[in-house]
Q: What sequence folds into this?
């Protein structure tokens, strides 16, 4: 009963939607007619001239004849263009017309439907109470149905088409009901004979609907045909008889729709009714023994609507295109759900192959459609997206973890190429969504960030490397394809893809490095050493990653890749500054100059210097990146400054650590070492300042000289404020003498090279 109510609600919704579309397109046609009438009224009218006869003047001279006017061509009334969708004729606009519609047509339709339902309940009630024999029930039903059909034909002859449609539809539905009951419930006739009778009824309904050009006949027969299994549902289950009956019923309707393309509103009824009955049986009575019947008839139902859609495409039927697209999508979705249900019970290991085979069917159909209708973008989009969606589902069923991400990455690249090659924007947009799905799935996996167990980790020889490599490679291929797009957002898309694949590559090298150190620590091989060098090695790897980014950005003039290289380098520099502000750990492992911190700072400074030099001399096409030049210069100077500071500072910290280990109470030697630490720190700053100043004078870099002078100021502040407070008299002598010598040297350099400095 609930299924019956559901079917009626869907039917009313479809009718409302169709009627609404018809009103909309009729209003468009009326607007076109009004516009053409306004154009006619606005055109200048041509006055009719009355021909005059030649007159004789009084003098007897003959007046010259008037110049004959050219005949005025008749004004042709320009007919309004045909609407894209057929328009319902005689749509009611007055109270009388609405009354005629309600009293004549709608009441006829509801009355016929009530008669069909009532007769079905009569048969069921008669069967339950054993009123009459089974043969008489069937014969009575057939006679009533036949008489109603004859009555409908007769009333058509009497020019009462609306009433005749109700009789014809009711009669056809009762004939279906009687034949179905005779075979499927009473077993009075064999299956071949039942198929013959049902086929005859279908042909009769088909011919009557076409003869009288009446979709209402088809609709009433269709509703009655679909209600038959529900009204006689108390009888034993017979799936072969049920689906044979349903196949013949739907076949007749599909045949009608092949000829009457504008009867589109019959298709939703047929689709919903067919799959409703099919899925109710699958959910309630389907077993593994019935898989052949379920598969065969499910395929038949899908083929009906698939072939119908294919025929509309090849015939270039454009009316109600949105409804047709929706019906085609629902058909493919319902069929796939049915296949999943069948294969899950009988062949659970073949679901991926099933989805792949269905995807191949839609893909081959796409190739065929493209040969006949390459300009129909909406159809090509639908078929290509359906094929790719099934392929994506097949991949998700067959693979998991990193294998799934690899499959989706390759499919997304292929899908983007197809969208670009065939100029299907929705297809390549879908490819970008698939890339997003692959990346999201990658981030949800634990092995993406940490190998577990860590003992199974193999550097650069693991599935994570392969997965990231395929995904990044697919994104790079897609990035180059975006350059050839004609879409207005192709530049933004290219930049987004560059950000994504460069970020994934940064993540990959980071997690690979961290897992390598986790493995070494887990193996117990000098844990302090690996903890000490872990982040220094990371800084080296990051700057080596930024350099190729920087080169490719300049080589291909890609602003976004160039900016990403600068961001990675700046981030590495900030991390280096953080380590430059902290003491070397563990301090007993420190070796002056020859340590991993010095190596990482050296590599980082060289890398930043190279990037700064290239951007300063060769990047003249990216004005918005010029602000990075002074930042790079300041970062390089700061890194070297911190390296000098930490090397001097940690050297004496190591000395103090060793003193406390040898003589814990010898505080005098510790204080002496601290004084030397401050003295050499000031000396290191002064030497570094002189070096910067010399480079600034030599290369005529005013900013570098200003930074050197600022560093002089910091050193002077330290010597006069801090060193006076902490150093002994002996160390103060060296501190101030050294500061004086350096400042005098700076003064000499400024006077000696003043023309070189101030005449830049």
A:
């Amino acid at each position: 009963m609930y299924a019956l109510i559901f079917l009626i609600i869907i039917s009313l919704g479809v009718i409302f939607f169709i009627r609404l579309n018809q009103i909309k397109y009729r209003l468009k046609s009326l607007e076109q007619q009004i516009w053409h009438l306004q154009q006619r009224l606005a055109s200048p009218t041509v006055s009719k001239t009355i021909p005059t006869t030649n007159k004789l003047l009084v003098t007897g001279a003959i007046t010259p004849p008037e110049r004959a006017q050219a005949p005025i061509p008749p004004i042709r009334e320009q007919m309004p263009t045909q609407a894209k969708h057929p328009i319902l004729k005689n749509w009611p606009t007055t109270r009388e017309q609405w009354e005629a519609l309600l009293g004549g047509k709608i009441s006829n339709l509801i009355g016929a439907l009530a008669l069909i339902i009532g007769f079905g309940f009569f048969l069921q009630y008669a069967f339950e109470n054993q009123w009459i024999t089974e043969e008489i029930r069937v014969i009575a039903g057939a006679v009533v149905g036949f008489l109603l059909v004859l009555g409908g034909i007769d009333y058509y002859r009497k020019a009462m088409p609306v009433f005749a449609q109700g009789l014809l539809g009711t009669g056809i539905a009762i004939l279906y009901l009687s034949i179905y009951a005779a075979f499927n419930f009473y077993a009075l006739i064999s299956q071949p004979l039942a198929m013959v009778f049902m086929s005859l009824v279908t042909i009769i309904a088909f011919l009557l609907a076409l003869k009288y050009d009446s979709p209402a006949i088809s609709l009433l027969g269709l509703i009655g045909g679909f209600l038959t299994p529900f009204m006689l549902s108390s009888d034993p289950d017979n799936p072969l008889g049920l689906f044979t009956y349903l196949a013949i019923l739907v076949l007749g309707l599909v045949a009608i729709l092949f000829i009457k393309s504008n009867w589109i509103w019959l298709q939703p009824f047929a689709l919903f009714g067919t799959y409703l009955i099919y899925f109710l049986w699958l959910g309630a009575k389907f077993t593994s023994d019935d898989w052949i019947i379920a598969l065969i008839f499910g395929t038949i139902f899908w083929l009906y609507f698939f072939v119908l859609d294919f025929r509309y495409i090849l015939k270039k039927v454009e009316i109600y295109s949105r409804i047709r697209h929706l019906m085609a999508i629902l058909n493919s979705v319902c069929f796939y759900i049915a296949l999943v249900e069948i294969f899950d019970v009988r062949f659970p290991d073949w679901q991926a192959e099933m989805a792949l085979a269905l995807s191949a069917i839609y893909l081959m159909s796409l190739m065929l459609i493209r040969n006949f209708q390459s300009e129909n973008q909406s159809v090509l989009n639908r078929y290509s997206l359906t094929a790719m969606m099934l392929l994506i589902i097949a991949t998700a069923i067959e693979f998991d973890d990193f294998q799934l991400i690899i499959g989706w990455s390759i499919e997304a690249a292929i899908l983007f190429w197809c969208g670009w090659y065939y100029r299907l924007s929705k297809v390549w947009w879908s490819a970008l969504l698939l890339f997003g799905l692959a990346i999201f799935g990658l981030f949800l996996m634990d092995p993406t960030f940490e190998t577990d167990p860590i003992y199974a980790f193999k550097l650069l020889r693991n599935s994570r490397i392969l997965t990231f490599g395929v995904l990044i490679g697919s994104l790079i291929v897609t990035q180059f394809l975006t350059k050839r797009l004609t879409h207005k957002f192709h530049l933004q898309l290219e930049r987004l893809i560059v950000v994504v694949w460069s970020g994934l590559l940064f993540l990959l090298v980071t997690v690979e490095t961290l897992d390598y150190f986790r493995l070494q620590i887990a193996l117990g091989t000098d844990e302090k050493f690996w903890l000490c060098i872990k982040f220094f090695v990371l800084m080296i790897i990051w700057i080596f990653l930024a350099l190729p980014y920087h080169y490719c950005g300049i080589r291909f003039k890609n602003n976004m890749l160039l900016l990403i290289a600068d961001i990675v380098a700046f981030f590495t520099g900030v991390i280096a500054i953080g380590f430059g502000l902290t003491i070397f750990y563990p301090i007993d492992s420190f070796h002056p100059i020859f340590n991993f911190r010095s190596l990482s700072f050296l590599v980082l400074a060289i890398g930043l210097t190279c990037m700064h030099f290239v951007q300063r001399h060769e990047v003249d096409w990216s004005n918005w990146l010029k602000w990075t030049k002074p930042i790079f210069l300041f970062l390089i100077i700061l890194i070297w400054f911190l390296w000098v500071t930490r090397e001097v500072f940690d050297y004496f910290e190591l000395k103090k650590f060793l003193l406390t280990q040898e003589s814990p109470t010898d505080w005098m030697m510790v204080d002496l070492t601290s004084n030397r630490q401050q003295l050499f720190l000031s000396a290191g700053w002064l030497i570094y300042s002189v070096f910067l100043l010399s480079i600034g004078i030599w290369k005529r870099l005013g900013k570098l000289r200003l930074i050197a002078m600022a560093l002089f100021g910091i050193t002077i502040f330290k010597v006069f404020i801090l060193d006076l407070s902490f150093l002994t008299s002996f160390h103060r002598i060296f501190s101030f003498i050294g500061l004086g010598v350096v400042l005098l040297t700076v003064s000499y350099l400024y006077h000696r090279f003043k023309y070189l400095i101030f005449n830049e």
User: Anything to note?
Assistant: The chain has a mean pLDDT of 77. The CA atoms of residues 579 and 597 lie 9 Å apart. DSSP finds 24 helices and no strands in the chain. The longest helix spans residues 2-42.
